[in-house]
Amino acid sequence: MIGMEVQIVDHPLAAARLTTMRDKNTDNAAFRGALSDLTQMLVYEALAGAPTATVPIETPLTACDGSRLATPPLLVPVLRAGLGMVEQAHAMVPEAHVGFVGVARDETTAQPVPYLESLPDDLSGLPVFVLDPMLATGGSMLHTIELLVARKASDITAVCVVAAPEGVDALETSGHPVRLVVAAVDEGLNDVAYIVPGLGDAGDRQFGPR
Ligand SMILES: O=P(O)(O)OC[C@H]1O[C@H](OP(=O)(O)OP(=O)(O)O)[C@H](O)[C@@H]1O
Ligand SMILES: O=c1cc[nH]c(=O)[nH]1
Ligand SMILES: [Mg+2]
Hints:
alpha/beta; binds 1-O-pyrophosphono-5-O-phosphono-alpha-D-ribofuranose; glycosyltransferase; Uracil phosphoribosyltransferase
């Protein structure tokens, strides 16, 4: 799909949380806190313009029309690092259902190695938000998107903190129905496929080494 929608969330508060996450002196707890705060901003922006449904209500004074999300997205954290996003995303969209995908890159080849999939069978008509702070080569995100498309998802949003241009290109050329919401697109990948300047290993920085 040429011309994939990429929404960069560059609000000053988002930039401040991202700075905390990038700083190598930020400890695990503060990293998780900044990721949670930033997730709130990313999900808020990702849902701007989402279709709404009218809800008739009564205020203490009179009847009026209210509003709710027409179709709350399925939230899909990619383990491990996406776990640090799901609680806050779910707080923003409490009526959402949640699926899980587990994939870990092989440390020598950087290829994604899947180990978990727990998703509804039929995703037709349901928007899906994939939560993973890092989009590096794009291999892990593409694996996840392929699981979703195989279940008939046709409206997928990748919600990420940092992306490499290589990962953005990989999503764009995949032809899958995906858009990207991200706090920053960095310079690129180093020789072991880490994002530079990046923030290191987002799973390790929340939970310790695996
Ligand atoms: O775009 P890619 O090249 O696939 O890299 C991105 C993936 O790498 C990280 O996970 P990792 O494999 O380190 O697993 P973890 O979350 O368990 O640490 C990250 O959370 C993404 O899932
Ligand atoms: O920079 C990177 C690349 C992949 N996964 C991470 O957690 N960080
Ligand atoms: Mg990791």
